[in-house]
Amino acid sequence: MATLLLVGCLPAASPFAANRVIQQTARNMDCCPLAMPQGREELEKRKRDKQFLAVNIGKTLDTLRADIPNALHEQPDLSVFKANVRLSDPSGVKLQGIGMYDNALRLLRTLSSIAFHNSTEVSARFFYDEPRLVLKAKLNAQIRMKTGGDPQYLSIVSYYHLCESTGKVQHHVVDRVDIDGTEVDPFHLLADRTALSENWLGAPAVPTSRDTIPATRPARSFLTDKRQLLRRS
């Protein structure tokens, strides 16, 4: 039918042009049924991948926003982290792997349960950088020690880098930790634990009690000093 309409619209004095148009139309009709479905399939795949990524990112962000304020006391949902997730600070990567990451968080909760009172107040603020797929989290806590004394103020700034293909956390950077306004290195304490020491990648050496106690001479008695003076005289 399309061929008949095209022929009817052509001038009678151009039979060669009519044949050329008919042949070209036939070729287009042969090609279109094959090319269009392939294009649609590609577009549909991209659309599905984009929707999949958006859903995973939404789940990851919601999970982090719910878990971070409770990180000192409750186990987080690690399903939103990649199996090879990295934990680092500005000096470099400290550990890698979901198992080691879980051990580090478990150790943090253990230390918190031992040292911190249950009345510790925790709050968190978040900012999501959508183009870079990075969630910035700032945790603020008013810590009350079980040993008593005035409360201390803890501030932790972290960046969670999401994977562009899965939407899961692939890199957790602890950018800064402050206690009462003074920056501290929390990885010193974590690196000195046997559960993490074998897989610790970049922790600075933790000084031992032998390293921190200055070398002193043995105490001398008054009689010892007096005898030395008599010998010299």
Main β-sheet description: 7 strands, mixed
- What is the CATH class designation of the domain at 47-203? Alpha Beta
Helix content: 40-55%
The SSE string, one letter per element, is: HHEEHEEEEEHHHH
Approximate shape = elongated
Structure description:
With 233 residues, the protein is α+β, with helices and mostly antiparallel strands. It has a domain at 47-203: Roll (Nuclear Transport Factor 2, Chain: A), CATH 3.10.450. The chain is 44% helix and 24% strand. It contains seven helices and seven strands; from the N terminus they run ααββαβββββαααα. Strands 1, 2, 3, 4, 5, 6 and 7 form a seven-stranded mixed β-sheet that branches. The longest helix is centred in the first third of the chain and has 53 residues, at 15-67. It is elongated.
Question: Could you name the key traits of this structure?
Answer:
alpha+beta, 24% strand, 233 residues, seven-stranded mixed beta sheet, Nuclear Transport Factor 2, Chain: A
Topology of this protein?
Blueprint: H1 2-9, H2 15-67, E1 81-89, E2 92-96, H3 98-115, E3 121-129, E4 134-143, E5 152-162, E6 169-179, E7 182-183, H4 187-191, H5 194-197, H6 209-212, H7 222-232
Parallel strand pairs: 1-6
Antiparallel strand pairs: 1-2, 3-4, 4-5, 5-6, 6-7
